[in-house]
Amino acid sequence: MKCLRPLAASVSFLALAPHAPLAAQDTREDEPRARAKRIVVTGGGLEQAPSEGAYAVTEIERERIVSTASGRIEDALRDVAGFQQFRRSDSRSANPTAQGATLRALGGNATSRALVLLDGVPIADPFFGYIPFNAIQPETLSAIRVTRGGGAGPFGAGALAGTIALESAGAAQLDPLLANIAVNDREESEASLVAVQDLGAGFAVASGRWDRGRGFFTTPDDQRVPASARAAFDNWQAGLRAVAPLADLIEVQARVNLFEDRRTLRFDGADSTNQGQDASLRVVGRGDWAFDALAYVQARDFSNIVISSTRFTRVLDQRSTPSTGLGGKFELRPPVGGDHTLRLGLDYRRADGELQEEAYNAFSGALNERRRAGGVNSNLGLFVEDDWSIGRLLLTGGLRADRTVIADGFYRAVDASGALVAETLAEDRSDWTLSWRAGAAYAASDGLRLRAAAYTGLRLPTLNELYRPFVVFPVVTQANAALENERLEGFEVGVDWQAGEALAVSLTAFDNRVENAIANVTIAENLRQRRNLPAIDAQGVEGNLRLALGTVSLDASLAYTDAVIDGQGPALPLDGNRPPQTPDFAASATLAWRPAAGWRLAATLRHTAAQFEDDQESDVLPAVTTLDAFAEIPVWREFSVVLRGENLTDEDIVTRNAGGSIDLGVPRTVWAGLRYGF
Q: Residue 431: what are its φ and ψ, rounded to 5°?
């Protein structure tokens, strides 16, 4: 907590002193004081660079973010063609460590292959690499911008599959007070609050959210035992964001965010806790020499108890996994001419953490081993990117040089008496890697744009992948301190067509290859190890459709991907196998109607094709089609009734299949609530 105090103090200072020193005024005596200049801040970053036009970009608007059936950000992201998490569960019934985000069906092992940013700050867990979606309140966001393909700009070393940028709403987009409360047919509840206060020429946003419930049985009826438990959840989030001007074209943005997330999965006593304290400070300058300077710190912890699926006793207590993430960036846009947008900068990220766990005998309950594992990963990146507009043609290109360091890695296990059982002391290693991307876009007409791009990408293995073994009974997965960085090479071509305000269509064909792809590889019966596969090849097509006819709109997306493992596996032949947890087809369509001001009625139909649980293609997760619904109906002044329905057809959503041992996703769930504001 000590590391958060300087940034928290910055927020307090902004709240106490936002007036005369922060508002530039015209001091000429020959003009009345009433004409003093008032500085208006936005709370956002620099304008999007023109290079966005050369890549496959999808934007989710605020209205959609706050009107999902589940009320969760990952649900809104499922509208994006090619987005997936490791499992089909959401942040109520999945183990938090399984909530990695990726794009383009590149496979995964629960670690994010997509870079997820909140106002420019990477938010992945420093130790595991998963995304704490419960730490972000949807009502505080203005938009989500998803860019597919390797990244060469700020923090590009994490953007192997693309970038998911979450953008906070400013004071102009928020009511002074927005409150929600809801309950569902299982007596689970949600409550949230967002309050906005002007502070001189700046503003502050305070937010809080609390979700709790007994959950549903993830275990099918025919597999339940007396120890089977509902997927209970109890989580809260509280945040404060302040924005104020420092000069005419310079503003400072400060944020503090606290969260805690508790879940129970499958068996009584199988409890997990995920908590964090994050803070950031950002200064944005919008003059001729535009710049964006950012610093952040994250203090996270994770704990988890594993229950034997045969004896139903505690076999593992991951009692604590403290980790710290810190970093920052500086980006400069010098004035080089009206036809060019030049970006220069550097960024730095550091993650350190340590696993602390105890293993117990399933029969006697006696302590078997005490285990510790951890290390330090860091990345320093230098980047340059230029966009050149030549009439209707846009050319863009960027380079990154990354120095990656993997250091202080270890794994140590001792028995109950303290005698050494196993120990790994990993060698420190470092490397320089060059990444690039280039693209072109041509406006063939006012509504038609043709684009093409090629790129490379980079991702470091996480501390979790390098040093932490784990067990999902009866399968043991070993860590691997020798894992190498993942590298992506890819290209794409696409077309964007817009017919006025009524119709927008986007279509992209891509070919991506991830070399040294990290996966949980089967090396013996019930034994796996994280290893670098030779490569994963993914070719496919993504499409998006937006149709608006008066008060009715249709938003649809689809993704078809042919993804295969290329080359022989390290122990067993995997050549030609499909990567685990990777469907070949996914589609989503939302039909919405706004009959009057304040009203919104919507239904969302989604389909996900079958996918394999493991690399041996032995266990299948069947295809599933779900129907969700949302209704907001004004009732009195600023009050609205909100009705939501998840999986209304009550489909069996298989989220895990290990030799016939099944976990299920959310069943039919109906919510009713009240919303004030917005």
A: -160, 155
Residue 311 is given by DSSP the state: T
**Maximum Cα–Cα distance for the chain, whole Å?**
89
DSSP character for 299?
E
Alpha-carbon span 181 to 107, nearest angstrom: 37
- Alpha-carbon distance of 549 to 60, in angstroms, equals 19
For tokens 């009959």, the residue is 595
Banded pLDDT at 81 (limits 50, 70, 90): confident
For residue 223, CA distances in Å to 266, 569, 610 come to 11, 33, 22
Which residues share a beta bridge with 258? 238, 277
Q: Which residues of 323-355 are buried (b: 16+ CB within 10 A; e: fewer)?
A: bbbbbbbbbebeeeeeeebbbebbbbbbbbbbb
CA 631 to chain centre: 26
Start-to-end Cα distance in the chain: 34
Q: How far apart are CA 463 and CA 460, in angstroms?
A: 9
**Distance between CA atoms of residues 183 and 223, nearest Å:** 29
CA dihedral defined by 512, 127, 260, 123, rounded to 10 degrees? -40
Map out the domains of the chain as residue ranges.
2-25+37-676
- Picking from 175, 145, 153, 152, the residue whose alpha carbon sits closest to that of residue 59 is 145
**Rg of the chain's alpha carbons, rounded to an integer?**
25
pLDDT at 286 > cutoff 70: yes
Q: d(Cα 655, Cα 668) in Å, to the nearest integer? A: 15
Work out the average pLDDT over 274-282.
97
**Cβ neighbour number for residue 19 with a 10 Å cutoff:** 12
Cα 367 from Cα 378, distance rounded (Å): 35
Residues with Cβ within 8 Å of residue 488, at least 6 apart in sequence = 106, 150, 160, 161, 455, 456, 457, 458, 459, 512, 513, 514, 515
**Phi and psi (nearest 5°) for 380?**
-115, 125
Measure the CA angle with vertex 668, ends 189 and 181; round to 5°.
20
* pLDDT over 60 (residue 350): yes
Distance of CA 491 to the CA centre of its chain: 23
Q: State both tokens at 426.
A: 């990993």
Distance CA 260, CA 233 (A): 11
CATH 2.60.40.1120 fits 2-25+37-676, yes or no: no
Average of per-residue pLDDT across 196-201: 92
- Return the exposure string of 105-124: e unless at least 16 CB atoms fall within 10 Å of the residue's CB, then b: bbbbbbbbbbbbbbbbbbbb
CA 458 to chain centre: 17
Cβ neighbours for 55, distance < 8 A, ≥ 6 positions apart = 147, 148, 149, 439, 451, 453, 492
What are 193's two structure tokens?
Answer: 């609050």
Give the position of tokens 């964006």: 292
Taking the C-alpha atoms of residue 428 and residue 448, their distance in angstroms, rounded to an integer, is 51
Chain segment 140-157, per-residue pLDDT in tens: 999 999 999 887 788 888
Ramachandran angles phi, psi of 466, nearest 5°: -75, -40
Q: Give 577's strand partners.
A: none
Please confirm whether the linkage preceding 21 is cis (ω < 30° from 0): no
The count of residues in the chain is 678
Using the structure block, give the residue that is written with the tokens 């976990």.
Answer: 663
Q: Residues 152, 435: contact at Cβ < 8 Å?
A: yes
Record the tokens describing residue 563, joined without a space. 């993804």
- Residue type at position 510: F
